[in-house]
Amino acid sequence: MLQVEIRVKARMDKNWSEWFHDLEISHPCEDETFFSGTIADQAALYGLIARLRDLGLPLISVKCEGSTQPK
């Protein structure tokens, strides 16, 4: 499992959470959205980034911690 934090330059409504693997959505600044939570693996991370790209949302930062190796 991976703990991710993704920040984009846009304000997304919290209703988008389900479309983004149920990540928590917050707004640290008026024109930024912060996605945080746990995802299954790196493939899921790339899928999230692709969805943001398809929506035309500029990435500010992506942080990822954890292991993709099964325990």
The DSSP helix count reads 1
**In CATH, what is the class?**
Alpha Beta
Q: Which geometry do the CA atoms define?
A: globular
**Which sequence of SSEs, written as H and E, runs from N to C?**
EEEHE
Total number of distinct structural domains? 1
State Rg.
12 Å
Average pLDDT figure = 92
Tell me the total number of β-strands. Answer: 4
Under CATH, the topology is which?
Answer: Alpha-Beta Plaits
CATH architecture, please?
2-Layer Sandwich
- Overall structural class, as computed from helix and strand content, comes to alpha+beta
Question: Which regions have little confidence, pLDDT < 50, spanning 5+ residues?
Answer: none
Sequence of strands across the biggest β-sheet = 2-3-1-4
End-to-end span in angstroms? 10 Å
Describe the largest sheet: 4 strands, antiparallel
Q: Report strand %.
A: 35-45%
Percent in helix: 10-25%
Explain the overall architecture:
It is a single chain. The protein has 71 residues and is α+β, with helices and mostly antiparallel strands. It has one domain (2-66): Alpha-Beta Plaits. 18% of the residues lie in helices and 35% in strands. It has 1 helix and 4 strands. The chain has one helix at residues 42-54, and strands at 2-8, 24-26, 33-39, 59-66. It has a 4-stranded antiparallel sheet with strand order 2-3-1-4, covered by helices on one side. The protein is globular, with a radius of gyration of 12 Å. The chain starts with a strand and ends in a 5-residue tail after the last strand. The model has no long low-confidence stretch (mean pLDDT 92).
Blueprint of the fold:
Blueprint lengths: L1 E7 L15 E3 L6 E7 L2 H13 L4 E8 L5
Antiparallel strand pairs: 1-3, 1-4, 2-3
